[in-house]
Design a protein that fits this description.
The protein has seven helices and nine strands. It is α/β, with parallel strands linked by helices. Strands 2-1-5-9-8 form a five-stranded mixed beta sheet, with helices on both faces. A four-stranded mixed beta sheet has the order 3-4-6-7.
Length: 211
C-alpha cells in the first residue's frame, strides 16, 4: 500500500512539473530594428529546448534615458530588464528583450564591490543580462555578431537560453560543456559550448517548475 502511494505521488509530481513547464509563457520583446529572422531563431530555441509557450510583442524603442556614453554609446542592461519586468504583459511568466544595440552593466566581485579597475568595469559591455531568479532578461547581438550566419544564430540562441536560465534560478555553471557556463569575458566560450545543460542545471529547472 505504501509503495502504491509513493508511486502515485511521484507520478503526480512528474505530471504537475511537466504541466507547469508546458504552461510557462515567455514574451519576446524585440526593440526597434531587430531582424525578424533572428526573432524566429530565438522563438524556435525557447520552444524546442525549454518547451515553453511564446508570444511575440510589437517592436518598441529602448527608453532614451537608459542611454549612456561613458566609454562608448551603450544602453544600460540593468535598466532595460527593470523596464521589461515592470511592463511584462499579464499572464506572461518571463519576458526577453532583443536588441542590436550595445548594452552594459556594472560588473561586481564576490563582495558586490565594483570589479577593479573600476574604469573598466563600472560600465561593462555584455552579451545579455537577466534577473536570477526573475521574470525578465535582455540579449544584444552587438557583441556576438558574426558574418557567418549559422554562427551568428547559434550564438544568439545560446545567449538567449542562458539568460532565460538565469530567470529560472540557474547560476553560472562550472561545467565547460553547459551553456550556463560563465562567458569569462570572451565570445569563444559561447562558440565552444553546445546547446546543452548539464544534469545539475537540468535538475534546477525541474525544481523550479514544481514551485
Amino acid at each position: 500500500m505504501n509503495r502504491i502511494w509513493i508511486w502515485s505521488a511521484l507520478f503526480f509530481l512528474i505530471v504537475l512539473g511537466c504541466t507547469k513547464r508546458e504552461n510557462t509563457k515567455v514574451a519576446i520583446q524585440p526593440f526597434t530594428g531587430f531582424p525578424t529572422e533572428l526573432i524566429d531563431s530565438v522563438e524556435f530555441a525557447i520552444q524546442r529546448f525549454y518547451g515553453f509557450q511564446t508570444i511575440r510583442l510589437e517592436p518598441i524603442d529602448i527608453p532614451e534615458n537608459y542611454f549612456v556614453q561613458i566609454k562608448s554609446p551603450r544602453y544600460r542592461a540593468d535598466s532595460i530588464i527593470r523596464f521589461l519586468k515592470e511592463n511584462r504583459p499579464k499572464g506572461v511568466d518571463h519576458i526577453i528583450g532583443l536588441t542590436t544595440k550595445d548594452i552594459s552593466t556594472t560588473k561586481r566581485d564576490k563582495f558586490r564591490k565594483i570589479k577593479q579597475p573600476e574604469s573598466k568595469y563600472a560600465d561593462w559591455g555584455v552579451f545579455g543580462l537577466g534577473y536570477r531568479p526573475g521574470s525578465s532578461c535582455v540579449v544584444s547581438t552587438y557583441r556576438i555578431f558574426s558574418a557567418d550566419k549559422v554562427k551568428n544564430i547559434n550564438r544568439l540562441q545560446k545567449v538567449s537560453l542562458h539568460e532565460l536560465g538565469h530567470n529560472l534560478g540557474i547560476p553560472h555553471c562550472p561545467d565547460i560543456d553547459c551553456f550556463m557556463r560563465d562567458a569569462n569575458e570572451t565570445i569563444k566560450t559561447i562558440d565552444f559550448v553546445d546547446v546543452n545543460l548539464c544534469a545539475k542545471c537540468r535538475s534546477r529547472i525541474h525544481k523550479f517548475s514544481l514551485q
